[in-house]
Amino acid sequence: MRRRPTPEDIISTLLMEEGFYEVSRNTESTWLDNQIILSDGKLQIVVNILSEDSCNSKSIIHEALIETQKLQSKYDGVIIAVPRRYSKIVDESLLLKYGIGLIIYDMMGAEEVLPPKININRKEKIQNTQYSIEKSSITEIAILKSEIAKIMRMLEEMEARLDRLEKEQRILASKIIELERTNSSKDTEQELVKVTMSKLHSNSNDNLPSYLKDNPWLEILSKRV
Amino acid sequence: MFGMDYGTGDFKYGPITIGEVPEVIESRGYFIERSSIMSRIMGVDREVVVGKDLPLFLESREDVAERLVYPMKNGIVERNDVRAWQVIKELTNYALQSFTLDDPDFKGFYVVASLAVVAPRYMYEQLFDIFGELNAEKMLVRAATIIPQPLAVAIAHKTPTCVVVESGHGNTQVCPISMYPIRNAVVALNRGGSAANTLTSEILKDAGYGDLAKEEKLVRRVKEQIGLLPKRLEDSIDYARRNPEKVKTEIRIEGTRIKIDLGEESWTRFLIGEYAFNPGHEIFQSYFKRGMPRPGDVKIGDTYFYGMTDLSEAIIEAVEKCSVELQPHLYSRIILSGGNFNWNAPKGLEGIAVTSDEKIRYMLKEKGIENVQAIVAREPTYSVWRGCIVYGYAVPYDFKWKWERMEGWLNYA
């Protein structure tokens, strides 16, 4: 079964013809029937829609107007949409004065009676905010860049130091190897002498030269340092 | 391990493997005439000949006098005596080459050389240089050290505290030792075996062997065979005159027709030994008057060598330079070493002729020193070399040479 178009659909269609697209719909508002938020990519507008039932109460109409006007600080443009049958209850000059747009609708379609005043201050404010954000970002980026440069310098320095340490470590390692070789050859040599002498002792203790046997000088001289 | 004893008369050398007795050659070199027949026959292309073949090169007596060089006097080689240092180098090379191994793993000997305790520092320096120069062609010396001869003697005799009296051909060194030579207490005498040779030569002249008296080697052999050491000279001469047949002796020189008999002058045999110990005895005045050179006092380097001081006086002087506490220990062990102490008491002459230790004990007792224990080094000719071997064997190889201590190994590797 074909669905009957809602007032939101009708109003949305009108504005989409002007280049807007729908951002969101709020159908749970307590004080008005519905709300649509639209955007053309640069501007963001809000449309508060009064239903026929709502238009029976003056207080609701006033409240809706006040609330719509409050939304000016939040959106670039604010529009109030009323049923065609009740278009006369709204003072157009008052709406014009406060920059609130007016759309009248019925089931046949919608018509923009008053365009909303685009809130340039807000835009500027946003631009300023953006600018300040950009500015602060640029400052931060500059600071970050200098910090990164500092870190890079430190890294380069660390790298150079590491290179030096690696080089020194290699030199030390080669020296240690050399020393170990020398020591081992010395040890071998001393060992060889000891072995020769111990062979001399063990093989022929009786043939050991008399001057080496039980000679107290061996101990005295071996302590020469 | 290789020991070298640079004695004034003999050069003793050899490695540890040689055992108890080193090789001995005379400490001399002959500068050969290159055009000589022997030089050409033997194919010798060097200037100096040393060692056992040296006599083959000797020519006429005049040439010998001119060309035969004894490099040491009183254990010292003069600093600028080029020919003497050439001989020392050739002796060292001769010794090392005699035992060099063809083994490719042979990297040179650990050499322990020994010099007189009075040897000046330049001798140490020149000897170390010689070792280095000899390594140029082939690695003969891996490391070297030089020790004083009295220390080597004390080591060979296993005595850490003692007085070593080392009397060689040219000089006598009295050196107290307590773990190491007490250099400040060393007393040196300008006489040794050669002094007794001089007297023997005079005695031979008086006995009618004037022609033989010029041959130094022969004189030395005569001294060794006929010389006697009296306990107390007057008593011994008196005994000899009363019992000439007991003192009379005849010696033959092997390989020659030479016979020597002192006849009625045989009592003079006692003079030879006495002169080595106490040349100041009045009986020697007549020889001095007739032209025999008197051992004079000389100063070599920083050391005075006394000529006429008797041996017991020299020992007392040396010991009294040491601490009083040490002196009794030093007198209780006196080691007499060197060829100049080889005196025997022949059978039938006991008590009249004595050995060197008995003589020293008697001489010191006469001067009031009791409790003396003197020993003659067994095979004194080899004591120094043996001490060198023990020293090299015991001293650690990482103990580097230090000039201030004059100890340690100088490494050539």
What key phrases describe this protein's structure?
heterodimer, A: 225 residues, alpha/beta, Trna Endonuclease, Chain: A, domain 1, 6 strands, B: 413 residues, Nucleotidyltransferase, domain 5, seven-stranded mixed β-sheet, 18 strands
Number of strands of chain B: 18
Largest inter-chain interface? A-B, 22 and 23 residues
Task: Report the total helices of chain B.
Answer: 16
Largest sheet of chain B: 7 strands, mixed
Describe the structure in your own words.
The complex is a heterodimer of chains A (225) and B (413). Chain A has helices at 7-17, 58-70, 92-98, 120-203, 217-222; strands at residues 21-26, 34-39, 44-49, 77-83, 101-106, 109-114. By secondary structure, chain A is α/β, with parallel strands linked by helices. Chain A folds into two domains: 7-118, Trna Endonuclease, Chain: A, domain 1 (3-Layer(aba) Sandwich), CATH 3.40.1350; 120-174. In chain A, strands 1-2-3-4-5-6 form a six-stranded mixed β-sheet, sandwiched between helices. In chain A, a hairpin with a 7-residue loop joins strand 1 (21-26) and strand 2. Chain B is α/β, with parallel strands linked by helices and 413 residues long. Chain B contains 16 helices and 18 strands. In chain B, 36% of the residues lie in helices and 18% in strands. Chain B has helices at 37-41, 54-57, 61-67, 82-99, 121-134, 149-156, 193-206, 216-226, 233-242, 244-247, 269-277, 285-289, 311-319, 327-331, 356-366, 380-394, and strands at 2-6, 10-15, 23-26, 29-31, 48-49, 68-69, 109-115, 141-148, 161-167, 172-178, 187-189, 250-252, 259-261, 298-300, 303-306, 334-337, 374-376, 410-411. In chain B, the strands form four sheets. Chain B has a seven-stranded mixed β-sheet, with helices on both faces. Chain B has a six-stranded mixed β-sheet with strand order 3-2-1-7-8-18, sandwiched between helices. The interface between A and B is medium-sized, with 22 and 23 residues.
